[in-house]
Design a protein that fits this description.
about 100 residues, mainly alpha
Length: about 100
């Protein structure tokens, strides 16, 4: 099979749609107490995606895949850093606040 054959496109599109459907059901079936760990896992997955995006935007030549690789690097970076910020804020909601502060 060539890299640009219609069969490869159909297989890739099928995997994409199945991943979207499974992801939707996984996220909406998780209890609210497990949303913070789920955010951490999605940040780890984005970290793996950014490695693939860096490989796609490799040093040789200038093709359409390089542009898509660069866009993927930027979007995955935003997703990773934004996800860590949201996870930090979610976890800070569970910290106990000290009500017995000493006034100076």
């Amino acid at each position: 099979m060539e890299a640009h054959s219609p069969e490869i496109f159909v297989v890739g599109l099928t995997v994409f749609f199945l991943a979207c459907i499974i992801g939707y059901y996984v996220v909406w079936s998780v209890t609210p107490a497990l949303h913070s760990p789920l955010m951490g896992v999605t940040n780890a997955i984005s970290s793996v995606i950014i490695v693939g995006a860096i490989l796609a935007a490799g040093p040789y030549g200038f093709e359409t895949s390089k542009i898509f690789g660069l866009v993927a690097v930027v979007l995955a970076s935003v997703n990773i850093f934004g996800g860590f910020i949201v996870t930090y804020r979610m976890l800070s909601m569970f910290k106990k606040k000290n009500k017995n502060k000493k006034d100076s």
